[in-house]
Every structure is written in C-alpha cells, then in structure tokens.
Design goal:
Layout (H helix, E strand, L loop, with lengths): L22 E4 L5 H5 L10 E4 L10 H10 L4 E4 L13 H14 L3 E5 L2 E3 L4 E6 L5 H18 L4 E3 L14 H12 L2 E5 H11 L3 H7 L5 E7 L2 E5 L2 E5 L8 H14 L4 E4 L7 H27 L1
Length: about 300
C-alpha cells in the first residue's frame, strides 16, 4: 500500500502490517474462554478481530481478557466510530483512544468504514453512506491521512452495505474505492457480504463488482450473514451479521480468492451470537476455500 504524493494524503511511512492469510473470528466475550482453551481437540481461529470502542476503558475484565488473548493471537482492530465521512471531520476522541490501544496491544491491522455516523451536534448508531463524488473523495482521503499520521500505520477502509444510492454520484463504488486507496495510501477491507447486500438493494452486478476489485489493495476480508425482507418491489437485504454466510456470498468469495489468492478472512457474527462450534464451522468453510485454491495452484505448478 504505497503512499501517494497528493498533498492531502497521509505522510506516514508505509510500514507493513499483516494478518495471517487464513480464517479469523470477530471476538465476543461469550467466546473468550473458548479461544484460550488449550485442549488440542478444540478448533481455534488463526487470528481475532475486536471493535476497539469496546475497550476504551482503561482497565477491568475486558482488558485482562484481551491481554491474555493478544499473547496467543494476532489482533485486528475494526473501528466503528471514526466517522471519516462526516463533513466536520473525524471523531478525534475515538482516534485518540484507538491510538492508545494500538500502543498497548500493537494490532496487526486497523480498519474503519467508508461511511459517516455523526455531525457537529449528533452521533448516530449507523454507518451511513457517502456520495461518490470528487469532493467526497478529497475529504475522505484527508481524514484517512489524519488517522494514518496519528497511528503511524496504514489502515484499511471497508466497503459499505448500502440501501440507497445518491442521485449525484460521479463514479461507481469500485472506482471510488480504488481512487481512495491510491490518494490516501490506505487499503481495502473487502466485505463480500456487503457486496451481496448492496448489489441486491441498489441493483448492481455483484460478480462484476467482485471482479473489479484489485487484489493488491485488499488487506483483509469479511464474510457475514444478513437478513432478508421480501417486498412487492423486490427483496431488501439487511446487514445484521446474525446468521451463517449465504450461499451467494460464499460463491462470490470463492470467485475472488481464485483470482486473488489467500487473504486474511474473518467470520463476522455480531447479533444472535452462536455457540463457538457454530462459528468455527464457518471458519472451517473459509479454510476449505483457501486450501482448495492452494491445491489448485500446487497442481498447476506441478503440471
């Protein structure tokens, strides 16, 4: 992820931060004991991801658990509160807290969203879409630059799940993402479930979307489930992270991996939290896709 000489881009040295190119889980308190279980019969992820906002307190049980887990697993910090798209600029309180946590835990990756969630007066519990315009591109790149300068590391930005499009968009979502990564010197957290959700809701070609993404900008991937509402004018998909990954998302993921190679891939499950073995069964599907790709590559090299 190289820096770009744009004056609004980050001036951070583009040091490398990497997660294992294998399956991880979104870590929930219900599974703290499971991931630390030393029983050799218990399946474990290769890495774990947390929302840093859940660890903004200075101490207590949450930090005791995370300290123990960080000694075993690489960490990814997936922020949900920087609000990089807000017209008034990013949430500096969250940025300072994330910087403190990065110094404390040294995560392998830090990410946030292509969205906004607040203004000068209010905060919203949603990741709201931004318009895909050159003005928004310049603003968003500037905010990412401030984050990367503060954290002294490149970050990843996640493609959104959308329920509407702006009439005045000047470019496609995939073109905006590539321009943003180039301008800001950041990378992409590629959420395949969000592709299915967005493509269904705003009528995009989901395979074309996946094929348009340059694998070189992807530093992490997410897979999750969603809810479906059927209406007279067609289905509406809700990105609730509350179920197993859909068959369509699995097919899109496999399509991308066949072209991109192995990538760090998270099973994201944030509502209706399942038993640990259910979560790890989804991780097993990730590993099956990655292993199949590796076997295909090995066969091709041997031929």
């Amino acid at each position: 992820m190289a820096s770009h000489p744009d004056p609004h881009a980050s001036t951070v040295d583009t040091m490398s931060f990497f997660l294992p190119p294998s399956g991880g889980i979104g870590l929930k308190p219900a599974h703290y004991n499971d991931v630390l279980d030393k029983d050799t019969k218990v399946e474990h992820p290769s890495w774990v991801e947390v929302h840093p906002q859940n660890y903004f307190g200075n101490g207590g049980p949450a930090h005791r658990w995370l300290t123990a887990i960080a000694e075993v697993y690489p960490l990814s910090f997936h922020s949900v509160g920087l609000s990089l798209g807000s017209a008034d600029g990013l949430n500096r309180h969250d940025l300072d807290k994330i910087a403190d946590l990065c110094a404390r835990y040294e995560p392998a990756m830090v990410s946030d969203h292509l969205s906004w969630s607040g203004n000068a007066h209010d905060r919203y519990p949603d990741l709201l879409p931004i318009p895909y315009t050159n003005e928004a591109l310049d603003h968003f790149a500037t905010q990412i630059g401030r984050v990367q300068d503060r954290l002294q590391r490149p970050i990843l930005i996640e493609n959104p799940s959308r329920y509407l499009s702006y009439r005045d968009d000047e470019m496609s979502e995939t073109d905006f993402i590539h321009a943003l990564c180039k301008k800001a010197g950041c990378g992409l957290l590629f959420d395949i479930n969000n592709v299915e959700v967005t493509a269904t809701n705003v009528d995009l070609d989901m395979e074309a979307y996946v094929d348009a993404i340059d694998p070189s900008i992807v530093g992490e991937m997410h897979l999750a489930g969603h809810a479906r509402e059927d209406h007279a004018d067609g289905p509406l998909l809700i990105d609730d992270h509350g179920s197993v990954v859909s068959d369509i998302t699995w097919k899109l993921y496999q399509r991308f991996i066949e072209r991109a190679g192995a990538k760090p891939t998270l099973i994201e499950w944030d509502t209706d939290i399942p038993e640990y073995h259910v979560l790890m069964a989804e991780v097993g599907k990730v590993e099956a896709v990655l292993n199949q790709h590796q076997e295909t590559d090995n066969h091709a090299l041997a031929s």
